[in-house]
TrEMBL record:
<comment type="similarity">
    <text>Belongs to the NAD(P)-dependent epimerase/dehydratase family. dTDP-glucose dehydratase subfamily.</text>
</comment>
<dbReference type="GO" id="GO:0008460">
    <property type="term" value="F:dTDP-glucose 4,6-dehydratase activity"/>
</dbReference>
<dbReference type="InterPro" id="IPR036291">
    <property type="entry name" value="NAD(P)-bd_dom_sf"/>
</dbReference>
<dbReference type="InterPro" id="IPR016040">
    <property type="entry name" value="NAD(P)-bd_dom"/>
</dbReference>
<protein>
    <recommendedName>
        <fullName>dTDP-glucose 4,6-dehydratase</fullName>
        <ecNumber>4.2.1.46</ecNumber>
    </recommendedName>
</protein>
<keyword id="KW-0520">NAD</keyword>
<feature type="domain" description="NAD(P)-binding">
    <location>
        <begin position="5"/>
        <end position="302"/>
    </location>
</feature>
<dbReference type="Pfam" id="PF16363">
    <property type="entry name" value="GDP_Man_Dehyd"/>
</dbReference>
<dbReference type="GO" id="GO:0009225">
    <property type="term" value="P:nucleotide-sugar metabolic process"/>
</dbReference>
<dbReference type="InterPro" id="IPR005888">
    <property type="entry name" value="dTDP_Gluc_deHydtase"/>
</dbReference>
<keyword id="KW-0456">Lyase</keyword>
Length: 332
């Protein structure tokens, strides 16, 4: 895998992956990203010029893909509209990027015979009850709840069809909730950290009992690299690090880490259709491909993430006010 094309590499998880690949392999990386509100070139600062190229462009642009695909060995597809709340407000961009964008990439992979890895989410499986001992596995039926997760589910099914019908050399991974550096302040953990850093109170949707299965973005990156190197074509791998926590616990940890009383948060309007709980069983990835997460202590990973936001206000401050204004308009 000496030359990789990474779609969405200026976003949160894509940029973490690019830094991981540059630090841990000798691959060259080309990032293709249209720089939506969620893309930030500053997330790619400091990469060696001889190993990294940035192309501003859209994944729905078939002619551009025709130029880029012949010179790469594999494509790792992160680009997406990724935020559930935005998908409830305006679903259309989610169909354009997540469905038509993935379709356009798959057609290019078919035409050029390119190895393709599709990044997806555990949200395609819907949600679990709080008291259910079950976790999602590769065999859990698809049951997405939101416009976001339904377009991700649709994109996964396109990949499966292009493997079976056209022999495209693709793998899929479905990962749980990521945290770490470079995550947009619209998302839960960075929103609450930056609220507290600015003297505002964290905002918890509903009662805060919803459970997410947190994984550090760098562990997601090492898992994707493992699948690229050792995964079986046509297979799906679930990525998770046994990090289940409810939202209230996470907010309390953030407040305590920043020296505030652990109850200094507000309850706000709940998300419509809010998924209750996600939980990943990553046994296949661990046993078949030998992957293990490094960040097994959530509180330590969270503390490092808080430090990153404290040290990098120049990265997030320019978009904080506009993000909060959008939430305020929804009562959140
Ligand atoms: P993000 O919103 O931070 O970044 C998305 C990136 O894609 C941005 O840089 C944006 O500019 C780019 N992009 C959007 N539309 C594009 C288009 N049409 N053409 C080219 N570039 C475009 O998202 P993220 O949180 O980093 O998520 C990345 C991927 O990982 C997504 O596919 C998402 O579904 C998946 N995922 C995310 C999580 C999570 O916790 N954030 C968990 C599991 C899976
Ligand atoms: O201010 C908030 N208060 C709050 O209580 C926000 C922004 C969120 N929440 C809750 C909603 C969720 O239960 O926190 C939880 C996490 O919310 P998000 O960060 O919006 O993530 P989620 O909806 O779980 O989806 C994330 O994980 C799966 C990513 O955004 C998706 O791209 C990924 O597929």
């Amino acid at each position: 895998m000496s030359k990789l094309l990474v779609t969405g590499g200026a976003g949160f998880i894509g940029s973490n992956f690019v830094h991981h690949v540059i630090a841990n392999t000798d691959s060259h990386v080309t990032v293709l990203d249209s720089l939506t509100y969620a893309g930030n070139l500053a997330s790619l600062d400091g990469l060696p010029e001889d190993r990294f190229t940035f192309v501003k462009g859209d994944i729905t642009d078939a002619a551009l893909l025709d130029e880029l695909f012949p010179s790469v060995d594999a494509v790792v597809h992160y680009a997406a509209e990724s935020h559930n709340d935005n998908s409830l407000d305006d679903p259309r961009p989610f169909l354009d990027t997540n469905i038509i964008g993935t379709f356009t990439l798959l057609e290019a992979a078919r035409k050029h015979g390119t190895r393709f890895h599709h990044i997806s989410t555990d949200e395609v499986y819907g949600d679990l009850e709080l008291d259910d001992p079950a976790k999602f596995t590769e065999n859990t039926p698809y049951n997405p709840s939101s416009p976001y997760s339904s377009t991700k589910a649709g994109s996964d099914l396109l990949v499966r069809a292009w493997v079976r019908s056209f022999g495209v050399q693709a793998t899929i991974s479905n990962c749980s909730n990521n945290y770490g550096p470079y995550q947009h302040v619209e998302k839960f953990i960075p929103r609450q950290i930056t609220n507290v850093l600015r003297g505002e109170r964290p905002k918890l949707y509903g009662a805060g009992e919803n459970v997410r299965d947190w994984i550090h973005a760098d562990d997601h990156s090492s898992a994707v690299l493992t699948i690229l190197q050792k995964g079986t074509i046509g297979e799906t791998y679930l990525i998770g690090a046994d990090g289940e926590k409810n939202n209230k616990e996470v907010v309390e940890l953030i407040l305590s880490a920043l020296g505030q009383p652990s109850d200094a948060y507000d309850h706000v309007v709940d998300r419509p259709g809010h998924d209750l709980r996600y939980a990943i069983d990553s046994t296949r990835l661990r046993t078949e491909l030998g992957w293990e997460p490094r960040y097994v202590d959530f509180e330590a990973g969270l503390a490092a993430t808080i430090e990153w936001y404290r040290d990098n206000e120049a990265w997030w401050a320019p978009v904080k006010d506009a993000t909060e204004a959008r939430y305020a308009a929804q009562g959140q």
